[in-house]
Amino acid sequence: MKEKKSSCCTPAADTACCRVEAIVSVDERGQVVLPKDVREKAGIKAGEKLAIISWNCGEKVTCLFMLKTDELAGMVKDILGPIAKEIMKE
């Protein structure tokens, strides 16, 4: 029996939260248009800032994630806040 080959890019078994929402194209200027229904579902308004996060597999970028910058700031605060508190105690 052959073993399944896993890679550093293989998603976790629990992928129920992830799905393909749309297929988009990159134009000659490197721009991508997010479809209206995706923007509405995500609550993305014109002028909002999005952070692009890359997931690398070796030297190659295999996934790109977009997060609203206000949510990213909250995540950073949640992660780094307790660490900073511990450092300040020392």
Number of helices: 2
Coarse structural class: alpha+beta
Helices and strands, in order, run as: HEEH
Q: Got a strand count?
A: 2
Mean pLDDT: 82
Strand order, main sheet: write it out. Answer: 1-2
- Rg calc: 18 Å
Characterise this structure.
The protein has 90 residues and is an alpha+beta fold. The chain has a domain at 36-89. It is 31% helix and 19% strand. It contains two helices and two strands. A two-stranded antiparallel ribbon has the order 1-2. A hairpin with a 2-residue loop joins β1 (50-57) and β2 (60-68). The mean pLDDT is 82.
Helix-strand blueprint:
Layout: H1 36-42, E1 50-57, E2 60-68, H2 69-89
Antiparallel strand pairs: 1-2
Based on the model shown, name its key terms.
2 helices, 90 residues
Concise description?
With 90 residues, the protein is of the alpha+beta class.
